[in-house]
Every structure is written in structure tokens, then in C-alpha cells.
Design brief:
The chain starts with 5 loop residues before the first helix and ends in a 9-residue tail after the last helix. The longest helix is centred in the middle third of the chain and has 27 residues, at 114-140. The protein is mostly helical. The protein is elongated and about 60 Å long. Helix 3 packs across helix 4 (49-73). It folds into two domains: 1-47, Homeodomain-like (Arc Repressor Mutant, subunit A, Orthogonal Bundle); 50-203, Tetracycline Repressor, domain 2 (Orthogonal Bundle), CATH 1.10.357. It contains eleven helices and no strands.
Length: 217
């Protein structure tokens, strides 16, 4: 078993403490103690606590954006639906594999701080561009219904972030753990059903002919 580097120990310790005590409630000394290192080591790698926060958020968003960009790049080889489903499944897998970091970052980016705004501006503008291009391609090729794209992106992002933005609700109220394989697979399946029933043109045509659609609960 490979021993974690000091930098990785600092990252893992900070994610754990930020999740349990909050960013403001965690001190650099507490991070150093949990990581079994000196405060000077944190200064060397990250500068200060804000630098550590910037690293965590940037690392998460870079990984997230790489996934969306890859799905967008596949538009020449796959249908828009396939690209959208590829992005959805890959994002959910990425969040599951980095569930503690996902939980922290999803919560942190809801705060309107200068640092978060600066980091978010670039990443989220690119994310919007890639998702919009996938939706526009699907509509142009008459694969997707002529849906209002901004609202479709809002709905999609809400579904993707929900399990890690509201972990207490997931575990305490719904009794579901999003990082468990069965739950993750079922949740991906439900989002795929949303794509097929709400986004795809054929389903829209079918729904327009039906007055009542049975829903499995």
C-alpha cells in the first residue's frame, strides 16, 4: 500500500475538517495536527487556508469540467443524447469517487464570496458553453425537442448536485447513500429517464398524445 504524500495528507485532512467543522470553524493548526505535519508545510504548499480552499475548489471544478468537455468533444462521433448521458454518468462517477470533496465544494460554491466568484466565472462559463452546445446540436438535428436550454441546464445541474449538496437530507430523510453503488446506479438511471422523457423529441411527441402518464413512485 502506497504511503500518502504530505501534500495529500494535508488535502484529505482539510476536506474532512472543512466538512465537519466548516471552513471558518477550522484552523490551520487543526489541519496540521490531523495531517501530522507542521503549519509551515501547509504554508509551503498552499500559502494559507484560503490558498488551500482555492486549490480544493479548482481541483474539483477542473475534474468536473474535463468530463463535460470530453462529452462535448464526442459530438462528432456520437448523438447529442449519447453525449449528454455520457456527461451525466461520468459526473456522477466523479462525484462518487470524490464524495467528501464533492460535498464540501458543492456547499462552498453556494456562498457568494470574492474567491468563489473569481474561480467560478471561468469554469462555469465553459460548462454552460459545453452543455448549451450539446443541447443546441440535439435540437438542430431534431433529436431533442425545442426546449428552453437555460432551464434544461438548470434542471440538469440541480439533479447532478442534489446528492452531495444535501447529504443530510439524503441520509437522514431519504435513507439513501449516494456513494453506494446501487443508489448511484439507480439515480443515474432516473436522470437518464428524465433525458428520455423530457428532452428527447420522440418522447415529447408521445406525451402530447397522452392525457395521463403513469408514474412509478
Amino acid at each position: 500500500m502506497q504511503t500518502k504524500t504530505m501534500k495529500q495528507r494535508i488535502i484529505d485532512s482539510s476536506v474532512f475538517l472543512f466538512n465537519t467543522k466548516g471552513f471558518d470553524g477550522t484552523t490551520v493548526r487543526e489541519i496540521a495536527k490531523k495531517a501530522n505535519c507542521n503549519v509551515a508545510n501547509i504554508s509551503y504548499y498552499f500559502g494559507n487556508k484560503e490558498g488551500l480552499l482555492e486549490h480544493l475548489v479548482s481541483y474539483y471544478l477542473e475534474g468536473y469540467l474535463t468530463i463535460v468537455e470530453h462529452a462535448y468533444s464526442e459530438l462528432d462521433n456520437r448523438t447529442a443524447r449519447e453525449c449528454l448521458l455520457l456527461a451525466i454518468r461520468s459526473i456522477m462517477d466523479f462525484q462518487k469517487e470524490n464524495r467528501h470533496l464533492s460535498r464540501f465544494v458543492q456547499r462552498e460554491i453556494t456562498f457568494d464570496t470574492t474567491l468563489i466568484r473569481e474561480i467560478m466565472t471561468t469554469y462555469m462559463a465553459k460548462e454552460k458553453y459545453y452543455f448549451q452546445a450539446i443541447f443546441e446540436t440535439g435540437i438542430k438535428q431534431q433529436e431533442f425537442a425545442p426546449i428552453p436550454i437555460p432551464y434544461a441546464i438548470m434542471q440538469l445541474k440541480g439533479m447532478l448536485s442534489m446528492p452531495y449538496l444535501h447529504p443530510q437530507y439524503m441520509s437522514e430523510v431519504l435513507h439513501l447513500m449516494p456513494y453506494e453503488i446501487y443508489v448511484s446506479e439507480q439515480y443515474c438511471h432516473e436522470i437518464e429517464k428524465w433525458v428520455n422523457m423530457t428532452i428527447c423529441r420522440q418522447s415529447h411527441a408521445m406525451n402530447n398524445k397522452v392525457t395521463l402518464v403513469p408514474v412509478n413512485i
